[in-house]
């Protein structure tokens, strides 16, 4: 397949396909006139990359996982993938906790600012953010 067909069938833009090729996530051969030719396996790799990106994995992690799946068994892949996903889940849980704390602080601050009485005095920073402490 040429790059335009891979892009059409996968939904991945040609610019991204070229970038993935630079990172050795996918590969192609060149025809005599310089066109990229991809094998049908590229669609499977792109599907894998898409799934890994949905888990917010970084491209270097995805490259490593592609190598593991290419050279290992399903059991080996599972044993490598399980701790990686468990770590990612812990990171997401930590982020959610921090965002919930931020949300609560913003809500308190918003309530405080909304009920501030009118004043002709100069405002000080602790006035707006007093509820955060």
Order of helix and strand elements from N to C terminus: HHEEHHHH
Q: CATH class of the largest domain, anyone? A: Mainly Alpha
Structural class: mainly alpha
Helical run tally: 6
| Strand proportion | under 5%
Overall 3D form: elongated
Uncertain parts? none
Query: In percent, how helical is the residue content?
Result: 55-70%
- Strands of the largest sheet, in order across it? 1-2
Q: What is the end-to-end distance?
A: 60 Å
The domain count comes to 2
CATH fold call of the largest domain: Multidrug-efflux Transporter Regulator, Chain: A, Domain 2
CATH architecture of the largest domain: Orthogonal Bundle
Radius of gyration, whole Å: 25 Å
Average per-residue pLDDT, rounded, comes to 90
Summarize the main sheet: 2 strands, antiparallel
Number of strands: 2
Description:
The protein has helices at residues 3-10, 14-22, 41-54, 59-71, 74-114, 125-129; strands spanning 29-30, 36-37. With 133 residues, the protein is mostly helical. The protein folds into two domains: 1-71, Multidrug-efflux Transporter Regulator, Chain: A, Domain 2, CATH 1.10.1660.10; 84-133. The mean pLDDT is 90.
Label this structure with key terms.
133 residues, mainly alpha, Multidrug-efflux Transporter Regulator, Chain: A, Domain 2, 2 domains, two-stranded antiparallel sheet, 6 helices, 2 strands, 68% helix, elongated
């Amino acid at each position: 397949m040429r790059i335009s067909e891979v892009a059409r069938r996968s939904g991945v833009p040609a610019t991204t396909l070229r970038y993935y090729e630079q990172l050795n996530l996918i590969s192609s051969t060149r025809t005599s006139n310089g066109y990229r030719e991809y094998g049908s396996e590229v669609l499977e790799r792109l599907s894998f990359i898409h799934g890994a990106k949905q888990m917010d994995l970084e491209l270097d992690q995805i490259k490593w996982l592609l190598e593991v799946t290419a050279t290992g068994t399903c059991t080996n892949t599972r044993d490598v993938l399980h701790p990686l996903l468990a770590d990612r889940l812990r990171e997401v849980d930590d982020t959610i906790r921090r965002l919930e704390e931020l949300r609560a602080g913003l809500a308190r601050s918003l309530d405080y600012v909304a009920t501030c009485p009118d004043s002709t005095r100069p405002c000080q920073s602790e006035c707006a953010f007093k509820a955060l402490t």
